[in-house]
Design brief:
- By secondary structure, the chain is an alpha+beta fold.
- It is 25% helix and 36% strand.
- The strands form three sheets. A four-stranded mixed β-sheet has the order 6-3-8-7, sandwiched between helices. Strands 5-4-9 form a three-stranded antiparallel β-sheet. Strands 1-2 form a two-stranded antiparallel ribbon.
- A hairpin with a 5-residue loop joins strand 7 and strand 8.
- The longest helix has 13 residues.
- The protein is globular.
């Protein structure tokens, strides 16, 4: 089944829908979300994307990200993807929104209006191997330092979040 994304304007007003891959090729601005999960130590959960992903395979990224389906609330979609990718549920709270355009590999682009959420969790996880090949908990400041030294290990959008929106995302956790 082809995935569909919600096309939006620069203020997140819905304009229609498009097949996900097409929206990343043209590119077309669409609604997305990113989740940062924290534990009680203030560490954030990062995931290494599965090697079979159609873009950014094997790169480290935030806890979870994706696109809401047409008719689905963004917060609801974020919770759905946490369960689909990492095999757990937790409530998420909005942190900020980030609009960006990034060139990826293979003629793919990210032109996204992204809702950024935070969640808290420390229990068992059941990773979906089609989505995630590895996870780890990291201290936000150490993450930022490693990302500066080794940017090639991280997804482009994740670099943008950590380097340009650090205080909005990690402010309460450092």
């Amino acid at each position: 089944m082809l995935e569909t994304v919600i096309l939006v304007d620069e203020k997140d007003y819905p304009l229609g829908t498009q097949e996900k891959l097409t929206a990343h090729l043209l590119p077309q601005r669409h609604r997305a979300f990113s989740v940062f999960v924290f534990n009680t130590k203030g560490e954030t959960l990062i995931q290494r994307r599965a090697l079979g992903k159609y873009h950014s395979p094997g790169l480290w990224a935030n806890s979870c990200c994706g696109h809401p389906r047409p008719g689905e609330e963004v917060q609801e979609a974020a919770c759905r993807r946490l369960n689909e990718e990492l095999g757990f549920s937790c409530s998420v709270l909005p942190l900020t929104t980030v609009c960006y355009t990034l060139k990826l590999e293979k003629d793919l682009w990210e032109l996204e209006f992204t809702h950024v959420f935070k969640g808290a969790y420390e229990g068992h996880m059941n990773l979906n191997p089609e989505e995630v090949c590895e996870i780890k908990w990291v201290v936000p400041q150490a993450l930022r330092e490693d990302l500066i030294i080794n940017p090639e290990n991280y997804a482009r959008w994740f670099r943008l979040y950590v380097l340009k929106h650090f205080s909005a995302i990690f402010g309460d956790s450092v």
